[in-house]
Design brief:
single chain, 273 residues, alpha/beta, 5-stranded parallel beta sheet, two-stranded antiparallel sheet
Length: 273
Amino acid sequence: MADPPAPEDPGARHAEGEARRTAADGRSGAYARSVLRIIDARTGQPVDAAPARRGLTRVEAHTEGFDVTALRVLLVADLLVRALEIGGTPVWALLDAERQQAELRAGAAALGIRPFEDGVDAASGLGETQVLHVVREGGAEPDGVRVAVAAVEASAPPEDADPAVLRLALLGTRRGVPVDLDTDTLDTAHATLARWRGAVAHWATSPSRPVPDEVRAALRAAWEDDLDVPGVLGVLGRVESAPEVPDGARFETFAHADRLLGLELTRDLGNPR
């Protein structure tokens, strides 16, 4: 008598789905290459974040010290890098920190921000076709396109928050709008993150389905519109509750969007709640 088939491994299926999503990014229509447009703070006008296909884009974050606003500057730079890479653009990520660089790098790592090269010691003129300087509002004024980031008011001590919760709380407001990290904001982010991670783990047990084309297009339309991450979160909220979307497609949608968000939404795979 033949042995019964082994149960499906959600982690393996996630890896297969990730390969499909990576391949899909090169297709036409909803899968076309990134056309990310970002508002230049100098002029108030949108510019192409990557004006040349496959051309190198330099993303340079500028900070004056270590605080939550500096972390938000780095987070926006991290999102820019992720969005460009999803669209197939090579990126050179740099950090130009005036002081407290060790503390800033440690805080950034806790938030899931990938390491940046030291902008002070890095060589220049590597043939990049675009340079994006990410700065806090009223801060540094380097030559070139400036991506301005509004301040963070932290009435609740950020060191008391789970780093992933803090990341989501910061993602919930467009970069040009100040953020008040009060207790209610952090509590809402905590509840949302826990619910989504549990839901993703549950959806992973269902048969895989592709991300619906209209959903993929809505996600990209949001993040390519001046990096509208709250718009991305809004799309996920609608997919979460849309009865017509199969659970397998919900899973793939959230996993795809997490390539930009960096919230480890698939962390609880194998442990559905």
